[in-house]
Amino acid sequence: RLVKHPLGYAGLALDAELDRHPQLESRDRALLSELVYGVLRTRGALERRLLEHAPRGVSDKVVRLHLLVAAYQLLLLDRVPAWAAVDTSLKPLILKAEGQALSAAG
Questions:
Q1: What is the pLDDT of residues 2-52, one digit of tens each?
Q2: What is the secondary structure of 75-100 as a DSSP string?
Q3: Which pTM was predicted?
Q4: Which of 71, 75, 82, 97 is in the most buried spot, having the most CB atoms within 10 Å?
Q5: Of 106, 101, 72, whose CA–CA distance to 89 is shortest?
């Protein structure tokens, strides 16, 4: 039975994704769960904080989500080093942008 709450749907999606990656260690699974549920719990506060630094907002939903995950780690998790939070949250976006630039140039 589906729970009619955003966290309920997130739980189902998270469980399905974790099932697709059984090789993940338990501590990585725990961190992923914390990031998903933590961002959902604090999204309003994170969005307000993001607007302080990007007053016109961030229209790209994928970019905004990556920024929210980075912000959650930087502001609310004390066991994740700042460099790791930024690297793991933003590197996929940088690699994607570089790939798109190469495709457009070539």
A1: 344 555 678 888 888 999 999 999 999 999 999 999 999 999 999 999 999
A2: HH-SSS-HHHHHHHHHHHHHHHHHHH
A3: 0.81
A4: 71
A5: 72
